[in-house]
Structures are given as C-alpha cells and as structure tokens.
C-alpha cells in the first residue's frame, strides 16, 4: 500500500515536471504581428527582464520533433538534428516558430541535450521585435532569405564572410555545434 502511494506521488511529480518543461512555454508577454517583409513575427507587449526565459522546449520528448534535415521552421540543435518548431506543442500553437532573424539579437538560444531555452540578452521594452541571429544556430539553411532590415543574405553560418563569423564568435553567441563545425574547417 505504502509502495503504491509512493509510486503515485512519483508519477505525479514526473507529470508535473514534464508540464513545466514542455507545456505553456510561451510567456504571457508577447503578441504576434504581421508585415509584408518579415511575415508573422513576435513583439513584446510588456517589459521583459534581462535573462528572462521566454521559451523553453524539451528535446527529450520522442514525438518526431527532431528532424534529420532542416526546414523553414526548424532550429538546428546539434550537428545532425533540427528541432521542428511546428511540432512543438504549446498553449498558443507553437509561436516560437515566429521568432525573427535579428542582426542585433535580443534573445539568445541556449541548447543542451535536454532543452532549448530562449532568454533575453538585455532588458526588453514593450514593442520590441523578438529574435535571434539565425546563423548562430544554423549551419546551412533550408530557406535562405534577405534580411528586411539590412538586405544581408541569411543562409547559415557557413555562408557568412570571415569577419561576420568572427564578430559572432567574439560576442559569444554561437551555439556549441556551430563552434564545433567551424573548428573542423579551420
Ligand atoms: C522561422 S520563420 C519565422 C516566421 C515567419 N516570419 C512566418 O511568417 O512564418 C523564418 C522566415 O521568416 C522570415 N524572416 C525572419 N526574419 C526575417 C528578417 N529579418 N527579414 C526578412 N524576413 C525574415 C523569412 O521568410 C524566414 O524564412
């Protein structure tokens, strides 16, 4: 009997941990906007504190969210794995897929074996477009495009000129897998 009660407590704890990691990872401080150049994108509707985590996605759930090949809505999480942000459940339809590419990013993705988090690199004011530098996680993108802000061609880290690669390295924005892949070329 005691054993069964302990098992039930254990199950409850496991379930609620899974909810914290995987469900409702959208902070209630965001709204979506749409414009002809960038498409749908996310904007802060309230102040966001420096280091505040806006999204957290569990990488350990085996539901097909990790792909071998990239797509327009995937985030590269290791040398051969791409997180399909269209497949990640949340209470607002997986809106992390609407994060923009920003040359001066206000979010930093942190990728571990277990999860990806996006946190604010500084205090954010209401009305700021949210995004990260796509080339800090993507080696070679499935859907290259021209940045609406500066016309730069965004195709992935490997296509950046050496100077831009170096700037991203020095700003400590590069994901570990991009650093590893870059060091193999040196
Ligand atoms: C992950 S999706 C982001 C959501 C997308 N805006 C939408 O409406 O579905 C990436 C795509 O958004 C667009 N995008 C993101 N950042 C951009 C930027 N800085 N300039 C122009 N287009 C951008 C590009 O079309 C890119 O292929």
From TrEMBL:
Domain SET: 28-135
UniProt xrefs under InterPro entries: Flavunoidine_N-MTase (IPR053201), SET_dom (IPR001214), SET_dom_sf (IPR046341)
A family per Pfam: SET
Highest taxon, organism lineage: Eukaryota
Protein name (Swiss-Prot/TrEMBL): SET domain-containing protein
